[in-house]
Amino acid sequence: MVTLDTRLGEVVGGRTTTQLEKAFGMRTVADLLAHYPRRLAERGELTELSSLRLDEEVTVVAEVRSARSIRPRGGGRNVRLEVVVGDGRASLQLVFFGPKNLWREKELQPGTRGLFSGKVGDFRGQRQLVHPEYLLLRGDAVDELDADLYANRLIPVYPATQQVRSWVIANAVKQALLVLDEVPDPLDAELRARRGLLSLDAALRAMHEPDTHEHWYAARRRLAWDEALGVQLALAQRRWLAGANPTAPRPPSAGGLLDAFDAALPFTLTAGQREVGEVIAEELGRPHPMHRLLQGEVGSGKTVVALRAMLQAVDSGAQAALLAPTEVLAAQHARTIEAMLGPLAHAGELGGSEVGTRVVLLTGSLPAATRKRALLDAASGAAGIVVGTHALIQEQVAFADLGLVVVDEQHRFGVEQRDALRGKATSPPHVLVMTATPIPRTVAMTVFGDLEVSTLAELPAGRAPIATSVVPVQERPAWLERAWQRIREEVAEGRQAYVVCPRIGEDMSDFEAEFAEYEEPEGPARRPPLAVMDLLPMLAEGPLHGLRLAPLHGRLAPEEKDRTMADFAGGRLDVLVATTVIEVGVDVPNASVMVIMDADRFGVSQLHQLRGRVGRGGFPGLCLLVTEAPPDAPARERLDAVAATTDGFALARLDVEQRREGDVLGAAQSGRRRQLRLLSLLRDEELITAARAEAGDIVAADPTLAAHPLLAQQVAALVRDDQAEYLEKA
């Protein structure tokens, strides 16, 4: 009997088993069958070389005529492999850039037949495919497969490696499906019929051996449904558990700190701030913990909403902790909160309010005496509001009564850090997550699906518009000089400026870790991205000579970062040359212009966040996106989109569309293999919505999934998987 749990070695040969495990981590039949074809090539509809059209996605059958590696003189970086293929009537060039692709010359020998797939381009009048996918139709142990491939109309093309090519995977899949017993279905027949879904057994077989394209799409839909349902069941269970755990209610208290703060506010809250504030106030008063995500445009006033929630917690006798991802942002939050509270932040001090509290900052770089005082204030309860970084999670940090945890820029924290902070409360604390990165609806349902979502879309009065322009230095080199002139003009008016670079210095690791997902996967090698420490002296000696410049990046000593930020906020610096350390939370109202170098190296939402640092002081902001990307490059399309709109939600959707597969769910950051292979957060919006509804009904009737053992196994596998840390957003 062969099931999905059967070891691969019992079904395919030992050599193939070793290859598949080494290349893809496959150990069982389930692992193999979950390695889905990327696409189907259709023999009857393969494109003839003589009829290729520019920008068309094609699959061609052709024979290799020649292959040669190109190494430019003088050690240039534009190393490439050029291959010419033909079908007897016309020829086509294949190009593979980079030294890591030169190995292909050994297998793309003249006379080799293959399927070649990609987008048709043109270089100097020659039609070409750049980095095409291909399936070779010759070689050891594939003659029988070749016959099958040509006998069948639909040919599966699998993700492959240099060591394990697509035909090896296809042979293994064919062997497994021949002996596999009928796969039991976790979904009952009534649900399948209602949702129009294939059985799991039929879907797995049709995914690899479909009769028609429609059959294959139906299989994909069923398997994507299972992925969506697994995620939504896990999230529904978390919501159920959160609601089942009692906690101390933190209701509003008349005549307390919150009322005093509201009375002293120098501005009127927006309608959105009032509405969201009422929802949070009501939830804080419940005997079950609040789990809410507060998202809003840059400058929409999330901090005020969060501060009012913290004050309500303090009025009830509890403490509130604000967790920020960086020391720069934590210090900024502490300064902002103290400034907003005024005398209310200085209880027990000369000039402090009788109904006030204390605000303390707790980071890893505090001097020993300051740190000891902050620890005592947190442990005794004297500090009603504690602001910090991961230092709040250390074992020696204790709270008298932690009632509310506010997490800023949630995606920057790991699971263990969030759980550790929650563990410092005597009863489950209320949780408010803030993000200034707008989140498309399906991403919110999938990534933050165990949190209720509130959105602030209205900007407070006094926020000035931000104009954004692309500076294409290859086509318009004079525009870059004009950008530096604009900075000088703004400084002459008493304003300040940011210049942002993707990298700190000579070491590329800081760039590779954070921005590699936005690098174009194809094309010739590019120069290294610009670095703060390289650009700073060039500006100081050149176009910005005479202005007061300083660097700001993550490798500076904490006290130096604080001093630089304080000098910039106090007007003692004109220009900050920085990395994305300024991306969130930095609030200097006098800053009016930002120049982002190598802007094509950043993502859409990142650029939107960065430009939100200017235009905060009542006068217009200007953001200039400097790029060498050509007009028709995808990266340039990103920049044009950012320049065309300030609608963060529209840009967030574009960001999800353009980022590499899996990055939204955190796969690129962890480097781990994805659990979700077919589900698209944009294409499958209707499916995700339906799966969320079904999951809610199932968990409401059977919270532990005791009556649904196969679904319980599916959820357990998802939660167990290393990739699933994104589920821990509470």
How is the secondary structure organized here?
Blueprint: H1 14-24, H2 29-33, E1 39-42, E2 57-70, E3 80-86, E4 91-97, H3 104-107, E5 113-123, E6 126-130, E7 133-136, H4 143-151, E8 154-157, H5 166-179, H6 189-195, H7 200-208, H8 213-244, H9 257-264, H10 271-284, E9 291-296, H11 302-315, E10 319-323, H12 327-341, E11 358-362, H13 368-380, E12 383-388, E13 402-408, H14 415-422, E14 430-435, H15 441-447, E15 452-456, E16 466-472, H16 477-492, E17 496-500, H17 509-515, H18 532-541, E18 549-552, H19 558-569, E19 575-578, E20 591-596, H20 604-611, E21 621-627, H21 634-644, H22 648-658, H23 667-670, H24 685-701, H25 709-720
Parallel strand pairs: 4-6, 9-14, 9-15, 10-12, 10-13, 11-12, 13-14, 16-21, 17-19, 17-20, 18-19, 20-21
Antiparallel strand pairs: 1-8, 2-3, 2-5, 3-4, 5-6, 5-7
Helix pairs in contact: 7-8, 8-24, 8-25, 9-11, 10-11, 15-24, 21-22
Compact description:
With 730 residues, the protein is an alpha/beta fold.
Which residues form runs of ≥5 with pLDDT under 50?
A: 139-147, 512-519, 660-673, 722-730
The number of helical segments is: 25
Q: What percent of residues adopt helix (DSSP H or I)?
A: 25-40%
Q: Taking strands numbered 1, 2, ... along the chain, how are they ordered across the largest sheet?
A: 11-12-10-13-14-9-15
Strand content: 15-25%
Question: How many E strands?
Answer: 21
